[in-house]
Amino acid sequence: MVNIFKNRQWMSISPNPQRLRSGRISARLGLVTAGVLIASAAAAETPAVPQEPDNFGQCLQDIEQRAVAEGVSPATASKVLADVEFLPRVIELDRRQPEFTTTFADYLGRRVSETRIEKGREMLEQHRDLLDRVSGQTGVPPAYLVAFWGLETNYGSYFGKMPVPSALATLACDQRRGRYFSGELVSALKILDEGAIEPERMEGSWAGAMGHVQFMPSVFLRHATDADGDGRRDLWDSVPDAMMSAGRFLESMGWDPGYRWGREVILPDNFDYALAGQGRRSLGQWSNLGITDVHGQPLADEPIKAKLVVPAGHRGPAFLAYDNFRVIMGWNRSEYYAIAVGHLADRIAGAGDLSNPPPEDAPTLSRDDVLQLQAALNERGFEAGTPDGIIGPKTRSAIRRYQVSAGLVADGFPGPELLDSLGVIPSAS
User: Fold this and answer.
1) pLDDT tens-digit map of 219-270
2) Alpha carbon distance 385, 399 (integer Å)
């Protein structure tokens, strides 16, 4: 038994003989090639390449003036912005709507694979002294620091190849989110001005995230730390700087060192799934509703509240998510991501696989599939709102009400039973 939380026996991690089905590992998770739009049965038409906006030059001049006004040296602002280029690929990635959504089984399998777990354990031992020092100063356990590192850049094996100043300039001079990315570009200029890295080496993701832990420039300015004492905050070449910076960032968002991220639980038969995602309750309250740990034992009587997360419907795993789950989502606003970080940290620390792995036959729905689902619900009198192809709270409520009427488990999840009942056939079938 491995316990990564001293003096918290109820949070100890017990190995589980079940193994997570390994997904293919890619150091470039999330990078999807652009598809083609079929124009007819006989021909295909490639989407138009985004064009540089007419005001690109003026936009850069405005940003240069703002950067200098905020303290960037005129020489740095002028030199860096003179070399930036409009990158059509960045706009394509920003506009990209994946044809198919990712199921929880696929998401988790690709990110919490056996290869990544084993590599994470190696990194945990290799950097044990550093990670213990970071944990002692920030309260974030070593396994979590390694888990973030693993998910963000596969332990530093891939930072992204986009020139950050050009990527940010492209987005800053685009109408969709220009204000936000203008601020990030100014932050990037401040980083260059302080000498953290040379302009030609400032590479990262298409959205401007950088280094071992993929900080946006504004996060870098607030939380990057010189942990190795060389006088620079270097998130590209210094693992100590990267790990301490990650710990400081999580600490700033309220990481609670006394508790873990959450835990897998078992729900009783006939559980009311409307309670999932509907606010936090104490562990005692959840226990009174029949929820147990994965071994069927009562939940510990601890002074903490949790929300119930059921990412794959009633056939998949259920989790009680604690306050640190919210902190993880401050890094990335995705429940899938937060669960992946927590589960990877558990596995790196020695825990076993999930007691109830997510179903691998869950339907993969395109936006058109969701539009068809919403229309079917509306036609039957279960108001899902104006069809928009996005499964939001109103659609989930409509699904639950329909499931009750049809005698299905009312988990609000578009599983195969629901789709079959409504006559919706996923395009990926």
Assistant:
1) 999 999 999 999 999 999 999 999 999 999 999 999 999 999 999 999 999 8
2) 12
Domains of the chain: 56-97+161-225 (1.10.8.350), 262-348 (1.10.530.10), 367-422 (no CATH)
Q: How far apart, in whole angstroms, are the C-alpha atoms of residue 396 and residue 141?
A: 35
- Residue 243's Cβ-side half-sphere holds a number of Cα atoms within 13 Å equal to 30
CA dist 299 and 283 (Å) reads: 7
Tokens of 164: 């950050």
Give the model confidence (pLDDT) of 279-320 as tens digits. Answer: 899 999 999 999 999 999 999 988 899 999 999 999 999 999
Give dist(CA 207, CA 216) in Å, integer.
Answer: 8
Residue 91, Cβ density class (10 Å: 0-12 exposed, 13-18 middle, ≥19 buried): buried
Asked if 61 contacts 328 with a C-beta cutoff of 8 angstroms, the reply is: no
pTM assigned to the model? 0.83
